[in-house]
Amino acid sequence: MTPARILLxxxxxxxxxxxxxxxxxxxxxxxxxxxxxxxxxxxRGYSSLAAGMPDSAARDFxxxxxxxxxxxxxxxxxxxxxxxxxxxxxxxxASDSIVLKLLPPTQPESFFAHGWLWEMxxxxxxxxxxxxxxxxxxxxxxxxxxxxxRLRAGTGNLSDAMGLLDRAASLGDxxxxxxxASLLPPPPPSPEEQLARDAGASPALTRLQLAGLLRRxxxxxxxxxxxxxTLVHFRAVRDSLRDMEGTPFVGLAREAAIxxxxxxxxxxxxxxxxxxxxxxxxxxxxxxxxxxxxRESPLPPDVSARDYRAGAIQRALGSGLxxxxxxxxxxxxxxxxxxxxxxxxxxxxxxx
Length: 352
Known about the structure:
The protein has helices at residues 3-25, 37-50, 54-71, 76-88, 92-100, 108-120, 124-137, 143-154, 158-170, 176-183, 191-200, 207-217, 250-259, 278-285, 310-318, 338-349; strands at 223-224, 288-289. It is mainly α. The protein has two domains: 3-25 and 32-141, Serine Threonine Protein Phosphatase 5, Tetratricopeptide repeat; 191-349, no CATH class. It is elongated and about 100 Å long.
């Protein structure tokens, strides 16, 4: 057990004994009014602690302790706060030295500091108990609500944490809404977002996944290298996509077909689950002139000069849009991966 934990346990025991003695006496002392200048300076120090500024807090506590000494007013909350500030600043020995001289807490801020010290000792139950005492002593002071909410969220009590944060926000804690938002689980991704995520990691990119990448990263708006075919047996895009009707991706497919010239099939279908080969992807890239100046690239050994995709493959390799596979082969009939497609898209979109 660390020295700090020993000290804190001793103080907790003394505090409990004090409470029992007070109950036996049948009388409770009236709460000391928090109107003196030193107390106000201490409160500013606690605000700095809550805002994550322990250096500023330490200065306020030290100034407040000097004021309390000169005015002979209580300095309990300042000493407890300084112990926390020094610990947060990494001055563990200084913090322990202060704790050694502390009396058991009696004020809301002191309970709060006591809880924070327990929190830094990773004793959640002890910290929550001290935060509970701080709230009981002053229900209008928000810092113990906020720190207690963080701990309760960490133990899985999300509903309790949300209630505490709502109360802290109502008392003026401007950080509570952001903390509340950070504790809420993220909403599930939309079908379109999930499609783009799956596409980037896909070992075999499908036509629908390519359409998702185009929606996410941008349609290819370069000048078309070749005019679109006007064959009478092709149905117009607006009258096609019958295999996409009733799905959330019909607009996605239509966009890709119109803006990025993803071809439809003669029967007007999109065939979203068809896997795109590397050779077919190279041929699609070759539809666009994106102000790139491809160097002459030798024909890969696994691509025949008579292959209709040969020129497109050479230009894709020469412009750096696609890279050969192992041992210099292109593997034109193997699926293109999502990561390969993403690299090519980002490079071609730079010239769009």
